């Protein structure tokens, strides 16, 4: 009896199949389109927004009208313009936090999973330390220590996401480090860093990409939450969380004020959620998703 | 069991629907849940002679400290009272009568025959001990500066005490001091002893206290004013969230909500009695110890860029009055002409800014999530129009207060108490002290300000007072570090069956004549 060689399928063919599965998921495509629209709004906000988001030129608390499509806030600022500019804060926080989380967590997990022994023990205890503190509390502490600001906000949310990336990468690495194609790479003289980066990392990327989307989705909510508490994006820069905080005081006078930033937040999180789900389907081939398989050690 | 892509999509749609319902439920249920969250679990509602009030304020028992707003008039009797209408006609309380020496260098106070909650009689010795504590800067806290005009206190007999002043003192200053001076047993008048239990002779006694949960006050049958208080019992419930407090009021769980934000006024106006207390003032402080605010002209420029009317309308919901410095409109030193001559004028501000030649950038510290942030946003937008960039840096409250007291903030919006009928009491706050402990000037407090405060504290005759108050106004406006914005009345929402709840001149709740 002959055994099939333990090598992954050619990457281009796998990617094409995954892309097909992603496109077949209509909700995932809708999520991707929605996110692209949001990204375009954020990118071209100064061109698209009808008013300067900080200009206090209008009458306060106007309802939706021809002049101000979504009305004005308590200081007479155009709500639509603030929503459009507010997309920047949310998407930058989402992308930044995911990058920070992956930037620290993936190398940590790769080292722990591939090298094992004391490196694994030390890395995982570090991760345990981070996991011992609830994410929002950790972000609050970091913001209080470093002070509010966009960069500190991204750092705070990103550091909270490190454990997930580290654990996910470690488990995925453990699953393939003794497979033939990794051993072959070692046998052909590749150094340890080279093997980790060129052979192992490309083969554990799928769950990491999904985790990136999940983290981005979480970051949007945490950014809004911290800004709602007054510790996120500082005024007068618009942020959906900040708008919700302001609107809370004027629910009686202008009920629609709080509705719009809330809807934007829900829409963004839904888009990211749908993309994440689509990616899971794409990489798992329709079976139990890869992230679940990996995080549960294959026992689904 | 494996799941096909189709099943997977179905599950995803179900998950989507479930998520949507959960989100909608969470949004709809949040106010309800928050209303339940802070409740003690016991149903409230007023019964005959009992009311339940909710508050988000923290509290402690020592009347020499701050954070005593909700109970200080319940546990303690003061030497005199003022009417709650904002006027300053002295009403005998702990003191039955008082007589000033003709040279204004002393006053003899006769105490009313009264008992503390412990049953011990109120004596002149208690007043002497209380004055000594107030004169100690480390133990006197909020009473230290107002007591600074007193040289000594002597017990003439059990119920008579004589206060000698350092120099002739005007009657309003002495009366304001008597209004703020609580009667505390001599034996119990230390910060340590008062930390856990009050030691006064006020209309209510402490019945129960569970920190951050509830405070129960019972009528004091030995209160000097026979027949009062009208209520048998008052219960305070402590809430951590103001929305939860207002929801508790609307659900009937409490009979009143104390010290709530202006934003609730419109919503509650038709269904509850809204009571406005005397309140405090909101001021824009610029720290002369940190550039660019060491530049007086620049401070004067920014002082002209504060649009008080907009703050009143858009931040205070129309509640309150404009002020130009730390004097309430009821103060004898309040001069409304300054609201015109030194009011909002961006052209004048731009011209002064040009003359100042100083830097055009500063950072304002502020507690996050407070109305002060919106006030600063209005100031920020106006300053931007004249080329001054004000960055707003919201902070968590504890970090903010630490920075404020350590004089580390360039500028901020903060509250200032009422100075009642003694303009020299303007020098009470940390930013307003005449000593080097002043957090705005440190050791460089303008001598003209020190002289003006001293002159106001020494002016006896009406014409002297008029001149002294005018001089004090001039220097406050000239030095321009404490710019008045608006008054901030406190706000109470009460069940319509509750009446007679008032605040005193310092904005402390007085329940002596409250009925339910």
TrEMBL record, chain A:
One of its GO terms (cellular component) is plasma membrane. It comes from the Bacteria. It holds the Pfam family OppC_N. CDD domains: TM_PBP2. Residues 87-276 form the ABC transmembrane type-1 domain. It is found in: Cell membrane. InterPro entries: BP-dependent_transpt_permease, MetI-like, MetI-like_sf, OppC_N. It is a multi-pass membrane protein. Gene3D superfamilies: MetI-like. The chain crosses the membrane at residues 28-49, 91-114, 126-145, 151-169, 204-230, 250-272. One of its GO terms (biological process) is transmembrane transport. Keywords: Cell membrane, Membrane, Transmembrane, Transmembrane helix, Transport. Belongs to the binding-protein-dependent transport system permease family. This is ABC transporter permease.
Automatic annotation (TrEMBL), chain B:
PROSITE patterns: TAT (PS51318). One of its GO terms (biological process) is peptide transport. InterPro entries: Peptide/Ni-bd (IPR030678), SBP_5 (IPR039424), SBP_5_dom (IPR000914), TAT_signal (IPR006311). It comes from Nonomuraea deserti. Residues 91-419 form the Solute-binding protein family domain. GO terms for molecular function: peptide transmembrane transporter activity. This is ABC transporter substrate-binding protein. Gene3D superfamilies: Dipeptide-binding Protein, Domain 3, Periplasmic binding protein-like II. It comes from the Bacteria. Pfam families: SBP_bac_5 (PF00496). GO terms for cellular component: ATP-binding cassette (ABC) transporter complex; periplasmic space.
């Amino acid at each position: 009896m002959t055994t099939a060689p333990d090598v992954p399928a050619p990457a281009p063919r796998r990617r094409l199949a995954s892309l097909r599965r992603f496109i077949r998921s209509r909700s995932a495509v809708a999520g991707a389109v929605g996110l692209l629209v949001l990204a375009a709004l954020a990118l071209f906000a100064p061109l698209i927004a009808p008013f300067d988001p900080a200009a206090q030129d209008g009458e306060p608390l106007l309802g939706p009208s021809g002049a101000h499509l979504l009305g004005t806030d308590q200081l007479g600022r155009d709500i639509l313009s603030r929503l459009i500019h507010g997309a920047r804060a949310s998407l930058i926080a989402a992308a930044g936090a995911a990058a920070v989380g992956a930037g620290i967590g993936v190398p940590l997990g790769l080292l722990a999973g591939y090298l094992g022994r004391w490196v694994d023990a030390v890395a995982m205890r570090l991760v345990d330390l981070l996991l011992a503190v609830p994410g929002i509390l950790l972000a609050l502490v970091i913001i209080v220590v470093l002070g509010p600001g966009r960069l500190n906000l991204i750092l705070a949310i990103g550091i909270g996401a490190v454990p997930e990336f580290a654990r996910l990468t470690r488990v995925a690495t453990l699953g393939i480090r003794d497979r033939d194609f990794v051993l072959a790479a070692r046998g052909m003289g590749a150094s340890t860093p080279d093997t980790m980066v060129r052979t192992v990392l490309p083969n554990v990327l799928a769950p990491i990409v999904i985790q990136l989307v999940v983290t981005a989705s979480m970051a949007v909510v945490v950014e809004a939450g911290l800004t709602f508490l007054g510790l996120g994006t500082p005024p007068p820069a618009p942020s959906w969380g900040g708008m919700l905080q302001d609107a809370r005081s004027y629910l009686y006078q202008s009920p629609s004020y709080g509705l719009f930033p809330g809807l934007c937040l829900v829409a963004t999180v839904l888009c990211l959620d749908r993309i994440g789900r689509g990616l899971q389907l794409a990489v798992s081939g329709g079976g139990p998703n890869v992230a679940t398989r990996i995080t549960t050690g294959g026992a689904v | 069991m494996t799941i096909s892509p189709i099943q997977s999509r179905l599950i995803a749609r179900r998950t989507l629907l479930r998520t949507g319902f959960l989100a909608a439920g969470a949004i709809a249920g949040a106010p309800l849940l928050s209303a339940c969250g802070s409740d003690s679990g016991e149903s409230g509602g007023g019964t005959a002679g009992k009311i339940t009030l909710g508050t988000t304020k923290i509290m402690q028992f020592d009347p020499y400290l701050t954070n005593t707003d909700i109970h200080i008039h319940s546990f303690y009797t003061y030497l005199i009272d003022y009417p709650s209408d904002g006027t300053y006609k002295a009403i005998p309380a702990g003191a039955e009568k008082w007589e000033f020496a003709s040279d204004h260098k002393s006053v003899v106070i006769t105490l009313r025959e009264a008992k503390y909650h412990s049953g011990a009689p109120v004596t002149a010795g208690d007043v002497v001990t209380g004055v000594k504590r107030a004169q100690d800067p480390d133990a006197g806290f909020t009473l230290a500066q107002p007591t600074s005009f007193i040289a000594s206190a002597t017990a003439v007999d059990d119920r008579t005490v004589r206060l000698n002043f350092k120099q002739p003192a005007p009657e309003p200053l002495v009366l304001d001091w008597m209004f703020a001076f609580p009667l505390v047993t001599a034996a119990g008048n230390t910060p340590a002893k008062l930390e856990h239990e009050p030691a006064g002779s006020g209309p209510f006694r402490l019945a129960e206290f569970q920190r951050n949960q509830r405070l129960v006050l019972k009528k004091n049958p030995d209160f000097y004013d026979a027949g009062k208080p009208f209520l048998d019992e008052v219960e305070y419930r402590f809430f951590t969230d103001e929305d939860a407090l207002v929801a508790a009021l609307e659900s009937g769980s409490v009979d009143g909500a104390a010290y709530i934000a202006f934003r609730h006024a419109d919503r509650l106006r038709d269904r509850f009695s809204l009571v406005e207390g005397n309140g405090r003032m909101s001021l824009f402080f610029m720290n002369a110890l940190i550039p660019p605010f060491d530049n007086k002209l620049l401070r004067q420029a920014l002082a002209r860029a504060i649009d008080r009317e907009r703050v009143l309308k858009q931040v205070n919901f129309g509640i309150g009055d404009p002020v130009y410095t730390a004097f309430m409109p009821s103060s004898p030193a309040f001069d409304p002409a300054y609201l015109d001559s030194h009011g909002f004028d961006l052209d004048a501000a731009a011209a002064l800014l040009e003359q100042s030649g100083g830097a055009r950038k500063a950072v304002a510290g502020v507690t996050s999530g407070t109305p002060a942030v919106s006030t600063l946003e209005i100031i920020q937008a106006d300053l931007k129009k004249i080329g001054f960039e004000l960055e707003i840096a919201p902070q968590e409250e504890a970090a903010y207060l630490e920075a404020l007291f350590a004089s580390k903030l360039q500028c901020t919006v903060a509250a200032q108490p009422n100075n009642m009928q003694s303009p020299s009491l303007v020098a009470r706050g940390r930013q307003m002290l005449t000593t080097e402990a002043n957090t705005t000037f440190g050791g460089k407090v303008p001598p003209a300000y020190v002289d003006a405060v001293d002159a106001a504290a020494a002016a006896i005759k009406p014409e002297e007072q008029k001149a002294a108050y005018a001089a004090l106004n001039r220097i406050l406006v000239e030095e321009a570090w404490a710019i008045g914005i608006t008054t901030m009345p406190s706000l109470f929402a009460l069940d319509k069956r509750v009446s007679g709840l008032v605040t005193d001149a310092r904005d402390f709740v007085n329940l002596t004549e409250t009925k339910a």
